[in-house]
Amino acid sequence: MTKPTKLIVDCSTGEQTVVELNDEEIEQLEADRIAAEAQRAEQEAAEAAKAQAKASAEAKLASLGLTPEEIAALTK
Amino acid sequence: MPTPTYVAIAKTVLTGTATYVDFDSIPQTYTDLLIVASTRNDAGAGQQSIVVRNNKSAFSSARGLEGNGSAASSNSFANQGSVANSTFTSNTFASSEFYLANYTNTSNHQTSSTTTNENNTTTITTGIRATAAIDSQTVAVTSLRIANSVGSFVSGSRFDLYGIKNS
To answer: How far is B22 from chain A (nearest CA, A)?
Structure first.
């Protein structure tokens, strides 16, 4: 299987070289992927919970007799 | 305040895929560094992101704001900028800037970043993300690594590194 590559730009010479990642970098790559996925899942869960709470609050306000326009004025 | 002077240190436009783009042997003769990047990667759907690692070291997290025209939030991010992924309209790229202040200092390197992610459709996919990050390294920054959270940068992605002098 072909290994992922990196492009190295040497700022002192301008030389650009493409090389394969070493084992340590590949391990880091996997760790980065897991961390990013976890962070994304956490963020999506937080946004879903917030949306659910907002919908619940709006429903309660409506049951108290507030019009949609009045609820919008309170929540935006 | 003196007028800052931008000097182009290096640039690269990918002609193939690359998981990382490294800038090595960065001259220590400027005050700050600026990376301007136009990026797209080969990962699938999901909010893919990129990060700049000082001296290629592990990155902890950044704090930032994100908005897409209909919603906005404040979060900790495992990475900094966002990147166009393979589900985006062909040949669209995210635009990012990463500003690293006082990179020759031996402590507390602060990086701010902004990214806009353009999908060239009527729906804004990611919108804009702005972050601030700090590292705890005790050495000057002599190299930078630009990395994806998932996948590799594709051909056409571009990275420019500028040095900025304050005098």
So the answer is: 5
Q: What is the per-residue burial (b if ≥16 Cβ within 10 Å, else e) of B85-107?
A: beebeeeebbbbbbbbebbbeee
**What pLDDT digit, counting tens, does each position of B12-56 carry?**
999 999 999 999 999 999 999 999 999 999 988 776 788 899 998
Cβ-based contacts of A33 with chain B (< 8 Å): 149-150
Residue B58: pLDDT above 90?
no
**Cα B46 to the center of its chain, rounded Å:** 18
State the ipTM, two decimals: 0.88
| Class of residue B17 by CB neighbours under 10 A (exposed 0-12, middle 13-18, buried 19+) | middle
For residue B41, the 8-state DSSP code is: B
> Domain map of chain A by residue range?
5-75
Q: How many domains does chain B have?
A: 1
* Nearest chain B residue to A13, by CA: B25
pTM: 0.84
Which are the contacts of B157, defined by CB distance < 8 A and separation ≥ 6?
A: B13, B14, B18, B21, B37, B38, B39, B40, B41, B93
- Domain span at residue B62? 5-165
Least confident of A26-30, B4-8, B117-121: B117-121
Q: Is B65 part of the contact surface with chain A (CB cutoff 8 Å)?
A: no
Q: Which residue has the higher pLDDT, A15 or B79?
A: A15
